[in-house]
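User: Predict the complex with WT7.
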Amino acid sequence: MTSYIVKKGEHYYPSDEMKKIAWIKDEKIYNQANKNPVKFWEGLAKEGIEWKSEWKKAYVEKLPYFEWFKGGKLNFSINCLDRWIKDKGNKIALIWVPEPVKEKTIKLTYKELYDKVCRFANVLKKQGVKKGDVVSIYLPMIPEALISMLACTRIGAIHSVVFSAFSADALKARIEDGKAKILVTSDGYYRKGEKEDLLAKAKQGARGTTVKKIIVVNRVGKKVSGSKFLDFNSELKKADNKYEPEIMNSEDILFVLYTSGTTGTPKGIIHDTGGYAVHAYWTTKYNFNLREKDIMWCTADVGWITGHTYAFYGPLLNGSTTLIYEGGPDFPDPGIWWKIIQDNNVNVLYTAPTAIRMFMKVDEKYIKKYKLDSLKILGTVGEPIDEDAWNWYLNKIGGGRCPIIDTWWQTETGGALINALPGIGPFIPTIAGKSFPGIKHIIVNEKGKEVKQGKIGELVQVSPFAPGMLHGIYKNPKRYLKTYWKRFKKYYDTSDGAYIDKQGNIRITGRTDDVMKVAGHRISTAELENAIASDKRVGECAIVPIPDKIKGEVPILFVVLKKGEGSVELEKQLIKHVDKKLGPTSRPSKIYFVKDLPKTRSGKIMRRILKALLIKEEPKGLMTLVNPKVVEEIKNILKSKI
Ligand code: WT7
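Assistant: Here is the predicted structure with WT7 placed in the model:
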């Protein structure tokens, strides 16, 4: 069996077989690209993307804003579909594996996908959607998610996808920010054999907003009636299968995707058309060594940026095949992922460390049952991967044959930015690698001065900024400026800590702001605290993230009630309240009812002290507290509850 890696000394490098098939095998690319990054990206833009007319200026920077391929004209859906139709219309673009085992896997060719996208673009147009309008999409992992997103890009409308596990309230906030008139959703989806009722949440979320029509995909056979609702598939059938794509400027907005920051409200990250297309195309191709015949499975949900860029757009921009799966990783049993890989000959698997850690706990027989020989590249993303999980992934899933590409990036960056390339390596556990060719990151101290190699500091990006980077925060330029450009002015502030090792590879050490990564999901301490504090019984509260063996981190909640005592029942109700406000992904994993929280004289809650108590370290800085006695009280509560 082909091995794509070899061990040299302590580390893994690409084998000769890997070098044979690798797009990039010569390290010189880094130096060449960095000599003139703008020229490098211009070359990639010309080669990878079909433009209607070329840009006037490749890169314009006036911080905090910068634009790529200014004046260039293109349509995104042409790049994902039209250009493949002629020669490989019958090639499979999308493989969809539904959760119910009795349902068949659906395969859509490029031609079929094109046809559906054109039809849905006409459906949207009939409903009055125009270039620049926002369309909200609240869908699970089903083909209609891709169809509706691509239809938006064909019209030049901005899609705003909301994660299907988010609550009605979270959906509402996102609809209101974008003022969407159309919401695309489904009557439900399958999860662990059950029908999840998505429509109830969709209806509630859309109530009282700008949404005029809700287009519903019939997934679980619910009856939907009312003048506000349209049936996705009957509308599709009625519509014309041709749609002349709207030619857009490179700098026009392609989509908005909300993510959490350090304040109570999520921010709508704006991505533009040309720069994102170029970035998504090339990072998919180079990072996963994606070849035309390859089948890529990125397990991320479309509600996240990883789903946008690597489950949908990257593989299609490359004319390859992407696989998506509706269900969870452990239904009907924890062998399902490996069965899917075997049945569909998946070549690239891209997933999150949390999933890997979950599978590590499961009986190995569920993996051994299946042949995973088709795999060539394994990717991880979203949170730091520890050495154990890395080795397990390499050996148990990759059979010790496949490189692990640990990609660092963010919702804001649109695509991956720091990782080892498959044909170059090295592949080292916990180390992401080098910045993508043509991109530069450095490590600085609080004052923005570059620190010495090996020292931990703040990870920042240096101009020219990557083409896929955000274009702003939707309707909130002040927050954009403050979040990313205030601390270091000329550098993009990632809010991650990192250091550079002797070989020049970057090791990410984690967020340095009040943002948690729970099972790879990005959760804001402030947003979660706000949601909890909105329960009438809660006086004050504090969220403290602590390490977790599977999820990486989990939030622990401390609550001071306005009156009365805490109880198991109240705990349940508070969890329910979080589900309603944000969704189950944000649930605190434990709740402690306390009389008071440790505070400074100015009233600041000292979460640091709570954290020390939780992880059984001696808390420091008690002298600054206005209420030091509370520390003993909380210690006792923790003792009695564990
Ligand atoms: C944050 C961004 C990247 C798309 C999915 C998550 C953390 C991401 C890694 C990695 C260590 C990582 C960072 C980053 N992160 N990738 N390979 N190693 N940490 O996007 O939800 O916007 O989260 O995820 O802390 O800032 P996101």
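Residues 259, 304-306, 381-384, 406-411, 432, 494, 496, 508, 511, 517, 522 surround WT7 (CB under 6 Å).
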